């Protein structure tokens, strides 16, 4: 099968499209013929980190891709409720390939109304945003949600799910053009940042009342203004670190006095059983809306597998709104 392999190099990793053996089916897993997989920034951080260093073991080459949407080819021992031919989507290791293994516990049905590209948007981004808004932050209708870096894949998913819950959604971006594009997806207000301080920019829009919840996709360098933007009882959920800054200063007096709640949302260190529970909650809350079209993933552009390096460059150029997809 054809696959995009992450290969270490002197200046960091690079992509190599190779013919490799298809994954060997194991108990509790399903083999899927992949039709699409989504690009996630964490994948490219790992790629850049695959640097050859003198005196240190070389990082192991591996197939990229953290999710997949496609058709089940074969099921392993102990798998029930899934059969060959089923349309599915799910997290995996090695989605940038023609075939991938998925843990059966994390496999989700892909609604007929979703294209393969749209289905590939769901397993990582939409599930983690569901965790942020539904499970952790418990966003409610009528509340106000501030989403930083709103045009990003996670940002657009937060906008869509926030509007689904009936919240007022304010988005930030350095690009007024991208914020304008988000108006079609329900954005209520936009904050153009970059020409002045981040805190000053958002304060003019949110006013003295503050917001009920912040989903931050930027990082530690906006922790202070995000915390300051919260109303009494507000919740801050940090998902992305697009700026690369992982530390910020926290005013614990403000945290206590305003009864704030801070959440970190990531699946990286969760067990397969915990990820499976998240998938079940997601399906219960949102599969009907994905099926009938009330929620529809936003795709900026898709690339064939052979052009994955160009897809990565396009993502990192930061001109997109929504998800960038690789077709296999």
Major beta-sheet overview: 7 strands, mixed
Summing up helix and strand content along with how strands pair, one would put the structural category as alpha/beta
Mean pLDDT: 95
Please indicate the percent range of residues in DSSP E strands (runs of 2 or more).
25-35%
Overview features:
328 residues, alpha/beta, Quinone Oxidoreductase, Chain A, domain 1, Rossmann fold, 2 domains, 7-stranded mixed β-sheet, 6-stranded parallel β-sheet, 10 helices
Structure description:
By secondary structure, the chain is an alpha/beta fold. It folds into 2 domains: 2-121 and 297-327, Medium-chain alcohol dehydrogenases, catalytic domain (Quinone Oxidoreductase, Chain A, domain 1, Alpha-Beta Complex), CATH 3.90.180.10; 126-264, NAD(P)-binding Rossmann-like Domain (Rossmann fold, 3-Layer(aba) Sandwich), CATH 3.40.50. The protein is built from 10 helices and 16 strands. Strands 3, 5, 6, 7, 8, 15 and 16 form a 7-stranded mixed beta sheet that branches. Strands 11-10-9-12-13-14 form a 6-stranded parallel beta sheet, with helices on both faces. Strand 9, helix 4 and strand 10 (168-173) form a beta-alpha-beta unit. Helix 3 packs across helix 4. The mean pLDDT is 95.
Topology at a glance:
Elements: E1 2-7, E2 14-19, E3 29-38, H1 41-48, E4 62-63, E5 67-75, E6 87-91, E7 99-103, E8 108-109, H2 116-120, H3 122-136, E9 144-147, H4 153-164, E10 168-173, H5 176-182, E11 189-192, H6 198-206, E12 211-216, H7 223-228, E13 230-238, H8 252-257, E14 261-264, H9 272-292, E15 299-304, H10 308-316, E16 323-327
Parallel strand pairs: 9-10, 9-12, 10-11, 12-13, 13-14, 15-16
Antiparallel strand pairs: 1-2, 1-4, 3-5, 3-7, 3-16, 5-6, 6-8
Helix pairs in contact: 3-4
């Amino acid at each position: 099968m054809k696959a995009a392999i992450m290969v270490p190099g002197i200046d960091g990793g690079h992509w190599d499209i190779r013919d490799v053996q298809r994954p060997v089916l194991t108990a509790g897993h399903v083999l899927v013929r992949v039709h699409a997989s989504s690009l996630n920034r964490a994948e490219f951080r790992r790629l850049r980190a695959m640097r050859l260093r003198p005196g240190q073991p070389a990082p192991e080459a591996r197939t990229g891709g953290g999710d997949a949407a496609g058709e089940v080819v074969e099921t392993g021992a102990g798998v029930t409720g899934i059969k060959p031919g089923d349309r599915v989507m799910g997290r995996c290791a090695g989605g940038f390939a023609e075939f991938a293994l998925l843990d059966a516990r994390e496999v989700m049905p892909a609604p007929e109304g979703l294209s393969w590209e749209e289905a590939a948007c769901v397993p990582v981004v939409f599930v983690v945003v569901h965790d942020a808004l539904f499970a952790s932050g418990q966003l409610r209708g009528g509340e106000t949600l501030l989403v930083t870096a709103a045009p990003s894949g996670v940002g657009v998913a937060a906008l869509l799910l926030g509007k689904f819950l009936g919240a007022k959604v304010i988005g930030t971006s350095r690009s007024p053009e991208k914020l304008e594009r988000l108006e079609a997806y329900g954005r209520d207000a936009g904050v153009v940042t970059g020409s002045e301080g981040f805190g000053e920019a958002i304060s003019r829009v949110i006013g003295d009342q503050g917001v009920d919840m912040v989903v931050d996709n930027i990082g530690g360098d906006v922790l202070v203004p995000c915390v300051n933007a919260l109303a009494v009882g507000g919740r801050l959920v940090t998902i992305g670190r697009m700026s690369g800054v992982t530390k910020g200063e926290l005013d614990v007096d403000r945290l206590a006095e305003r009864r704030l709640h801070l959440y970190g949302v990531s699946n990286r260190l969760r067990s397969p059983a915990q990820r499976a529970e998240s998938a079940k909650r997601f399906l219960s809350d949102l599969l009907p809306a994905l099926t009938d079209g009330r929620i529809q993933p936003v795709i900026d552009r898709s690339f064939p597998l052979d052009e994955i390096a160009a897809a990565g460059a396009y993502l990192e150029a930061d001109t997109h709104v929504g998800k960038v997809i690789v077709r296999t």
